[in-house]
Amino acid sequence: MKPAKTRKSLAVPLSWRDMPWGESFRDALSHHLQPCLGKLYGFHLLKIGNLSAEIDTQNCAISHQVSVGETGQEVQVIADPLHLPFEAKSVDACLLAHTLSWSHDPHRILREVDRVLIDDGWMILTGFNPLSLLGMGKLIPGLHRRAPWNGRMFSQMRLLDWLSLLNYEVVYRSRFQVVPWNRQGGKVISTHVPALGCINIMVARKRTLPLTMTPAKKRAGQVKLRATVNATRQLRKLEDQDSG
Question: Which residues form the signal peptide (predicted)?
Fold first, then answer.
C-alpha cells in the first residue's frame, strides 16, 4: 500500500470542467448528496476545495455556507486547506468533495478538519473508487497524467481506517456509477453492482467521550477505596488474634 503523503506534483483541477465528463460527475454527485445534506443542521458549513465549491448545497438546512480554496471564482475564502483560518470547534459540517484526491497530505487535511469541527459535527467525503472501471484507467499508459486519473483514489476501507483513528463514526457510505452517455447504464451498476461504482460517498460524525473523571466522582472513588483497605486491615488483625 502506498503511503498517504506524497511529494509528487499533482495538477489540481480548478473546476469539474477541467476533466472529461466532469460536469456529469458533478451533477450526479450533487444529486446523490441531497439526502445527506438534508439531514445536516447547525450554523456553519465549510466547502473545502474548488470542486466542493461547485457542489449544489442549497437544500442544506445550514444557511451560512463558506467555500474555501487556494484559488477559483467560486471560492469565498482564499486559504490553504492544510491551514484553515477558523477557530477550533467552530464549524458544524465540512464537505470535502474529492478534496483528498489531489492533496499531498490527506492525513493532515483530515486532522485540520477535525480541529475546526465541533463535537458531533459532520464530515462528508467523496472520491473516485480505485476498484471501479474508471479507477482501472490509471493502468493505461499516458492516461494517468490526465484528470481524473492523475488524482489519488482511496478505497472506502482505507478511509474507514483513517476516520476510526480520529474517533469518527461513519453513519453512511455508498458508491454509485456515472455513465455520461447512458444514464440507465449508471443506474444498473449502482443498483446491482454498487461495489464497482466510480464515486464513493462517506458521511462521518465526530464522536467525543469524556476521558477526565469529574472531581465529585474522583472523591467518591477514593472514599470507597479507603473503606475497603481499612476493612482488609481489620480482617487481618482478627485472623492474627485467632491464630495467636
Answer: none
Write down how long the chain is: 244
The CATH code that applies to domain 16-206 is 3.40.50.150
| Cell 442549497 belongs to residue | 58
Radius of gyration, CA atoms only, the chain: 25
CA-based nearest residue to 114, from 99, 100, 93, 141: 93
Give the strand pairing for 199-206 and 117-128. antiparallel
The conformational region for residue 80 under phi > 0 = left, psi -120 to 50 = alpha, else beta, is beta
* Total Cβ atoms within 10 A of residue 90: 15
pLDDT in tens, 104-137: 999 999 999 999 999 999 999 999 999 998 999 8
Q: How many CA atoms lie within 13 A of 171 on its CB side?
A: 16
Domain ranges of the chain: 16-206
